Structures are given as C-alpha cells and as structure tokens.
Amino acid sequence: MKIIEAKDYQDLSKIAADYIIKKVCTFPELKLGLATGGTPIGIYSNLITDHQKNGTSYQGVTTFNLDEYVGLSGDHPKSYRYYMNHNLFDHIDIQKNNTFVPLGDVDDIQRECTTYENLLQEHGGIDLQILGIGNNGHVGFNEPGTSFDSETHVVQLTPSTRKANARFFSSLEEVPTQAITMGISTIMQSKEILLLISGEQKKDALNRLLTGNIDKNFPASVLKNHPNVTIIADTAAFAGSKVHS
Ligand code: F6R
Q1: Cα of 114 to ligand 1 centre, how many Å?
Q2: Cβ(39) to ligand 1 under 6 A?
Q3: Which of 234, 203, 184, 134 shows the shortest CA–CA distance to 211?
Q4: Would residue 173 show up in a list of annotated catalytic residues for this protein?
Q5: Looking at 50, 67, 117, 234, which residue is catalytic?
Q6: pLDDT by residue (tens digit) across 124-152?
Q7: Which end of the chain is more exposed for a tag (fewer CB within 10 A), N or C?
Q8: Is 138 assigned a catalytic role?
Q9: Domain 2-198+208-235 has CATH 3.40.50.720
Q10: Taking residues 235-242, what's their average pLDDT?
C-alpha cells in the first residue's frame, strides 16, 4: 500500500481531488466508485470548483456508489442518492443515468443486490474506487466479520456504525438498521483503490490497518491483499501510528 500524508483535511481533500481529476482527464470514460459520509465532502467540493473553473468534464464518466440505506428512497434527504446529487452530481456535467447508487427502497432487496452486482460486471468493473473507513474498520458497510468473498449484499448495521452516522440524522432512532453494500470481494475487484482517512477519531483504525494482521474482524485489512491501494491520511489520523514518526 502506498501512503501519502496530508497536512490536514483541506490538504487531503485537495490531494485526492487532484488525483481523481487527473484520472478523469486521462481516461474520460473512467468507471469511478464513490463513497459517502463526512470524509469525501471536501473532495467533492474541490471537484465542483475545478469543474467550474477549469471545465473538467464528466460526460463520459460512470459512477457506482458503495452503498445505500435500506428503506430510504432516492429523494429522502438522508439517502446516499440524495447526498450524491446534492454534493456532486447536480454541480458537474455528469449524465445522471450514468450514476448508479444501489436502490434502498425496492420490494425485493435481495434482487437489487444481484442486479447491482451484475451492473458492475456489465460495465467491466470499477477503475478507481474511493473508500472511507469506519472506526471499526468497515469499508462500504461491510462490518467486522463479513466474509472476504462477499458480493453486494444486505447488512445489519452495528450499533457503533449507527451511532457514528447519527450525526447526519435528527436522532439515533432515525438511523436505518440495514444497508445494501458492495461486498468485500466486489470492492477488491476494483483496479485501483484510494482510501481516505481523516481526523484524530480515525487514528486507532489507521494504526490497526498499518500494523495489524489481515483479519475479517477488521475488514479494511483485506486491502493489504490488493495490488494497487493508496492511503491518503492526514496528520491527525497518523497521530496513533506506531510505525509513523
Ligand atoms: C460510505 C461508506 C462508509 C464510510 C465510513 C466512514 O459510503 O461506505 O464506509 O466511508 O463509514 O465515514 P465518514 O467519512 O463519515 O467517517
């Protein structure tokens, strides 16, 4: 794994955004895997500014999001589809029908898992996947214990993940209990992965990732088996790392 240390969140967001912009300019038909949550907001804001200033075009780009809450429709303000439209897609020239987020409000959620997995295969897989990490090591919503062979599936969110995400809702009770997520095997099939880690609250997760064994109880550790992963972490996140001075 290649490691880049950013000074702070702003720096991390700029470095990651520049990396994506360069990829989009080099491969206008890029298949880009996207994440939600707090970490990528600054990246998306940099992509929008660059699009407005420099005209970087996303006309040929196709995106696939990692996950969606079960039970929320795309127009629900807390859904990840809404988040993506609001924080990125509505402000760049991407074709909306080339943006894919799993559907959380369908009658047959198992069928949606298969449909989403097939969709990824039909498009030839993801070229560059953006990932965040949970304090418990989750990637996507693959919680500790998830099989490394998993494909897109429905998960029961752990209390710690629901608590961490309660900041986006009015109360903990409002946070959905289930999500649909790309599996670990799905994520590992991406040709390249960019993992973003920011803030003091992620220092234990980063330390465990850098120093620990590959272990399904810490899902992000599987990334050590991937041939092309870059971690961009800021100084605050590195604070707990014994390997880093
Ligand atoms: C989001 C996702 C999650 C987040 C992770 C970190 O689509 O799949 O794995 O990346 O929970 O979230 P933040 O960035 O809010 O700390």
Answers
A1: 23
A2: yes
A3: 203
A4: no
A5: 67
A6: 999 999 999 999 999 999 999 999 999 99
A7: C
A8: yes
A9: no
A10: 85
- DSSP code, position 142: B
Span from the CA of 38 to the centroid of ligand 1 (angstroms): 7
Whether 143 is in the pocket of ligand 1, judged by its Cβ within 6 Å, is no
Confidence class of residue 243 from pLDDT cuts 50, 70 and 90? low
**Which residue, judged by its Cα, is nearest atom 3 of ligand 1?**
140
User: Which of helix, strand or coil describes residue 50?
Assistant: helix
How far is 138 from 147, CA to CA, in rounded Å?
Answer: 12
What percentage of the chain exceeds 90 in pLDDT?
97
Interatomic CA distance for residues 226 and 68, integer angstroms: 24
How far from the centroid of its chain's Cα atoms is residue 225's Cα? 18
| Domain boundaries, given as residue ranges, for the chain | 2-198+208-235
* 76-95 mean pLDDT: 98
Q: Is the CB of 66 under 6 A from ligand 1?
A: yes
Other CB atoms within 10 Å distance of the CB of residue 150: 20
- Name the catalytic one among 46, 65, 98, 136: 136
Q: How far is the CA of 67 from the centre of ligand 1 (A)?
A: 10
Distance CA 174, CA 45 (A): 27
197 DSSP β-pair partners: 233
Res. 245 pLDDT band, cuts 50 70 90? very low
What the block records as the tokens of 23 is 């990829």
Query: Looking at this protein, which amino acid is placed at residue 42?
Result: G
pLDDT of residue 244: 54
pLDDT at 241: 77
What pLDDT does residue 242 have?
Answer: 54
In angstroms, what CA-CA distances link 186 with 30, 38, 40, 69, 163? 17, 23, 20, 18, 26
